[in-house]
Amino acid sequence: MYTTNLTFNSYGTTVFELMSRLAVEHKSINLGQGFPDNYGPNAVLQKASEYLFDLPNQYPPMLGVPELRQAIAAHNKRFYGLDINWKTETMVSSGATEGLAACFLGLLNQGDEVVVIEPLYDCYLPMIERAGGIPKRVSIEPPNWKLNGSALRAAFSNKTKLVLINSPQNPSSKVYHREELLHIADLVKEYDAIAICDEVYEHMVYDHREHIPLMTLPGMRDRSIRIGSAGKTFSLTGWKVGYLTGSEELLKAVSKAHQFLVFTTPPNLQRAVADGLNGDDAYFDRLTIDMRSKRDRLAEGLSKISGFNPIICEGTYFLFVDVENVGFSDTDVKFCEYLTTEVGVTGVPVSAFYNRSLEKKYIRLCFAKENAVLDEAVEKLSGHFS
Ligand code: PMP
């Protein structure tokens, strides 16, 4: 009898997929999986369709089309003051997910350690392990999400190769502040490590907080790879266009994995994303303002429902909700199933982001939805729980 890969076998199907399937089956409002329900910016869609007919549809260059790579460099300069050489320090990936996979496969050797901060986006652990890495976890906990400096230091060793930082973080919605990032940077330098920075929610940061790429801190320019996603920045999750910024040396290694994983990404989508990234400030401001108002709408609605306690959302499009006092005795997974089948609202259980059960019950709800959808979800929940 054949044996399939043991790392991936041990993870099964992601809870996002399972909850989404259950949501479809029960016609439940799906605030589980993180995707917006709008169509994305018209101008970008229009460009993609024009480029499909106007320009070649054969394999584009392995590192991405020049237009997008130039736009990635310009975006880094405009928002973070980074001077990036587009020819050597940018790479387009098929979504941030493939970019992350290419980083792990291109940089890790068997037995290298990777410091990760849980709660963890679901693909991190399986991909690190499949690439031969050994995850070293540090936990941050709701409601304050404080990063404990000595716990972080304890996760480092002379085998540390990578540190994975996700800021703004899914699902905690934490936006790492300067002191924390400086502490992380010090450890990265002390242990001669590399930082992989998943910054896909870089344009969803609220209430005067600031997104600070680790790459901008002293000594981190050539030790960091910054990853963005058109899926998040332009609400086009199905396009799977991601972009990496990093030193020539690091991207050389990463692109070796990328060339054998996917080699390229659809050229018309890349060119349209280039136009999007070059768009005026108003687009980026609007995205933040819209998401912030949706966050407030959902949080306000939920806070009136007995047992629902939304935790302050600093960034991303996820609301982290404490449901410990809702009066449900089983696990968060069972609670999310119950919400879907009995109430008609779907969320995801937060234990999935820790790969273990937690002391308290939390769920994650995505608010990147039409206002009417958010209102209907709140109505259903308050009808059931009040
Ligand atoms: N990182 C994080 C933290 C995410 O939340 C997501 C999408 N949910 C991704 C990466 C993947 O992005 P993409 O769709 O561009 O692969």
Entry summary:
By secondary structure, the protein is α/β, with parallel strands linked by helices. The chain is 43% helix and 15% strand. Helix 4 runs parallel beside helix 12 (267-277) and helix 13 packs parallel to helix 15.
Q: How would the blueprint of this fold be written?
A:
Elements: H1 6-9, H2 15-25, E1 29-30, H3 42-54, H4 66-80, H5 86-89, E2 90-93, H6 95-107, E3 113-118, H7 124-130, E4 134-139, H8 149-155, E5 160-166, H9 178-190, E6 194-198, E7 224-229, H10 230-233, E8 242-245, H11 248-261, H12 267-277, H13 281-303, E9 309-311, E10 318-322, H14 332-343, E11 345-346, E12 348-349, E13 362-366, H15 371-385
Parallel strand pairs: 1-11, 3-4, 3-5, 5-6, 6-7
Antiparallel strand pairs: 2-8, 7-8, 9-10, 10-13, 12-13
Helix pairs in contact: 3-12, 4-12, 6-7, 6-11, 13-15
4'-deoxy-4'-aminopyridoxal-5'-phosphate is lined by residues 34, 95-97, 121, 166, 170, 198, 200, 229, 231, 237, 240, 242.
